[in-house]
Fold this protein.
Amino acid sequence: MIITFKINAPINEVKELKRKIENFNIKVIDASSEDLGVFGLIGNIHNIDIDQVACYNWIINIIRITENQYMTSKSKNNEKSVVKIKDVEVGGNNTIIIAGPCSIENENQYITTCQAVKDCGGHILRGGIYKPRTSPYVFQGLGKDALPIIKKTKSTLNMPIVSEITSISQIQELENVVDAFQVGARNMQNFELLKALGKTNKPIILKRGFANTIEEWLMSAEYIMVNGNSNIILCERGIRTFETMTRNTLDLSVITIIKQKTHLPIIIDPSHATGHWELVESISLAAIACGVDGLMIEVHNKPECALSDGGESLNINNFHNLMIKAKKLSDFMNKPII
Ligand code: PEP
Ligand code: MN
């Protein structure tokens, strides 16, 4: 990092800045000339709280010349992390399908849908227990009443299950029931929750917030990792833009960007990304063509009766058809769905 500053800056403040930077364990090389103050900073730059540095009105520019090395950053030897949800490896040589309804509504709905997901070749089940709904007047999820349904489904189908956790207080209750915690878009920056999840050893599917940059998303992953849990799968579910024809806007380039910058697996949620079931198939196939590690798809045995997100949920027949195409394409991409 290089900091340039006005040459007539108050000497005592310049010294104070140098001291502050050195306190972050960074070496400061003074390369100032007659016209311009220049500090070259050497060391672990991400230790610096940039707000503490940028607060002087005589600073001209702060220029990063190397990318920060974080726990989520790709290592020099390009190693990728494989995250295991029970026996299913996410981030390895196969494309993984996570599917199931938005919410667990009742036993018949859940088991029927999940059985179909299994029959079509899905690997992991999804299903909301606690639902973060925009309106407090609509279905909020079954909460505790969903737990026996999950237990029965797991013992019947013998498949791993992922569900969203919305509060630290749910960790104990869900830890023995679900195989991975999902952190939803709305909680991506709930730092206390992220810290607490970092202290568990459950895999975490960390969704990107709908108004967050990739950098902020990765810093949230960093919160989990720095607290001890490196089993993180990133999930892109679209961001909010000016567009109103889709529920969110999905930027597929995120798949390659995440693979370039990090060692973490990346999956796409085409259901929330689009908000319309008719768009789910093409977006899923596009994500596979981009080399995604997996998809998380909402499927419902009767989408027209769903208590949440029916409009973006595939019915069983459409999910079946999607899986046939997805399998062919993933074979071509050399990342088969098996
Ligand atoms: C969900 O997966 O049902 C959900 C609420 O997702 P998101 O956090 O991406 O909106
Ligand atoms: Mn949903």
Remarks:
- The first helix runs from residue 11 to 23.
